[in-house]
Design brief:
Elements (H helix, E strand, L loop, with lengths): L2 H8 L8 H14 L11 E2 L2 E3 L6 E6 L4 E2 L1 H4 L4 H20 L4 E9 L5 E9 L6 E3 L2 H4 L3 H8 L3 E3 L2 H6 L13 E8 L5 E9 L7 H13 L1 H4 L1
Helix pairs in contact: 2-8
Length: about 220
């Protein structure tokens, strides 16, 4: 998908970005295209305990059992191993090139209970929730679910101000001061998943940092379709 078309799909004004910004996105896309799959992937990862009703994570309290991707992906097949290896390589590239403190790639899938969710395929940073329900109810408190349902991007460079204005927000880590959540869409504009990045400082997601995020968002759909 062309950069301008993606920005419009996200709800951003393509005219608001400079020629230099578009070139930065293109440069990152070219680098991402040359990545080799990661040597190791994680099929299981630790997750926080969920609060009453499963609506929120209890920060600092980890569940006894790790989350296992095997059931929701349909088994540890060669194809799924390759998917995770390629997604992990992109996450590692992002970590090297960004000042973000947390980043995750989520795919839209049906879990074993038959629920439509965003499932975390790979990430770096503190332990966090593995699945986000794609429901209007959960979107009322979650940017991830909101973006996953609407396909509209969310850039929040001051979380405290956003909350003060009544914005919905799912707090995984109280240190987070800025967040960027972007949809992963196919050529038809259908949402395949999201990426989510969080920082412990305000005003990170602009300029080159935002260009990197958009390049990643444009690269991942080919793997997830």
């Amino acid at each position: 998908m062309p950069i301008q078309s993606y920005l419009s799909r996200c709800g951003f004004s393509a005219d608001a970005f400079s020629a230099d910004f578009y070139q930065q996105v293109t440069d990152f896309q070219q680098q991402l295209a040359t990545l080799t799959p990661a040597a190791e992937v994680k099929w299981q990862f630790r997750v926080p305990e969920l609060g009453e009703g499963g609506s929120c994570s209890l920060f600092g309290q980890l569940a006894d059992e790790p989350y296992d991707l095997t059931p929701i992906l349909g088994g540890q097949t060669d194809a799924n191993q390759q998917l995770l290896a390629k997604v992990t390589a992109i996450v590692q590239f992002y970590q090297v090139n960004s000042a973000s403190h947390w980043f995750g790639v989520y795919q839209r899938r049906h879990n074993p209970a038959g629920e439509t969710v965003l499932v975390k395929l790979a990430y770096f940073g503190a332990e966090s929730r593995a699945e986000f329900p794609l429901t209007a109810e959960f979107a009322a408190i979650s940017n991830n679910s909101t973006v996953g349902l609407s396909g509209q991007g969310r850039i929040i460079n001051n979380v405290a101000a956003y909350l003060a204005q009544g914005g919905e927000y799912y707090t995984c880590d109280p240190k987070v001061q800025a967040e960027a959540c972007l949809p992963l869409v196919d050529a038809n504009g259908d949402v395949l998943g999201i990426i989510d990045s969080e920082a412990f400082t305000q005003n990170l997601f602009d300029g080159k940092e935002l260009a990197l995020l958009i390049a990643v968002a444009l690269t991942l759909p080919a793997l997830l379709a």
